[in-house]
Amino acid sequence: MGQGESKRERVVVGLSGGVDSSVTAVLLQQQGYEVIGLTLWLMKGKGQCCSEGLVDAAQLCETLGIEHQVVDTRERFQKYIVDYLVSGYEQGITPLPCSQCNRAVKFGPMVELARHDFKASKIATGHYARVHFDPHRGRYQLRRAIDRQKDQSYFLYDLTQDLLAATLFPLGEQTKAETRRIAAQYHLHTADKPESQDLCLIEAHGSMQSFLDQHIPAKPGEIVDLEGTVLGQHQGIHRYTIGQRKGLGIAAQKPLYVVALNVQENRVVVGDRDSITLTSCWVQRVNWVSVAPPQTPIQAEVQLRYRAQPVPATVVPLAADRAQLLFADPQAGVTPGQAAVWYQEDRVLGGGVLESG
Ligand SMILES: Nc1ncnc2c1ncn2[C@@H]1O[C@H](COP(=O)(O)OP(=O)(O)OP(=O)(O)O)[C@@H](O)[C@H]1O
To answer: pTM for the complete prediction?
Structure first.
């Protein structure tokens, strides 16, 4: 290093090839960081995080004059996401792979690579969420983004304190409209890329159904009511989700919902709305984020789906990383495999995976 030159702090930015991560790189460069672009190659084929994404990310780095690295993560993605999804659907649950993807496929490996290969202390992504250190609590706090429409904190509840300490979310403080404005201002070729609407896997395969059909063979069975009366046939329980109403193909006098997916008997069990309405449920693989695991029950607002309205509940911490949720009002949207994430105001306290039964 020459005299008078100061060593700039280095940050590794996860680049998917989309507008959000592009603007993240621009903002950090503007703030004086030495930015390295890192693209994880997740899947074969075309799509946002596949070949098209790699090329767009490479082009962005060329425009910004920064280093770009691509790391082949396909095996990890296969193990933690594809296999996890397939075995979940085979067992009659509806897994949400995004939180697991963030912790095990993206943030964990990115922080490792940043520290050991790139000698960088920080990583950054284009997620809409906020993180800051609270000296009173002695912990990093994960919070919702300023832009509530885009807020992605729901998908980040599984991050650890160590990962949060190493992470920057520059977009958490601004709206998506501002992000697009910055992309246009810097003439980024990613400025007009359409918003991703769904799971990256679904975008790559056209639909969840076609993804599952490629991985799970059809296995016809019966659709029955709670008394065991056969009402129809199905082509495989992996095609159904608990709580599902549409697409059952059964004519009935009142609306029917999927109540249970019985793997042993290969049966889809249906019932009326009351039979899917719960006053409590259990959560496993709980991660407490912004607070240490509490010893006594806490009051929180629980979100049972991405974009669902949070509902008031008591979270009862249990042994072995489990918790029980006691809803203030009965809830019909409890889908095993999806994430339940609990908040106090805009702070993510914790979350976990909804259990069946
Ligand atoms: N394949 C990847 N390699 C590295 N980082 C990634 C990859 N995919 C996603 N990320 C990081 O995670 C963030 C959120 O990803 P998500 O899939 O939710 O896309 P998004 O919100 O549409 O963002 P973008 O517009 O950057 O694609 C991205 O902004 C990026 O920083």
So the answer is: 0.93
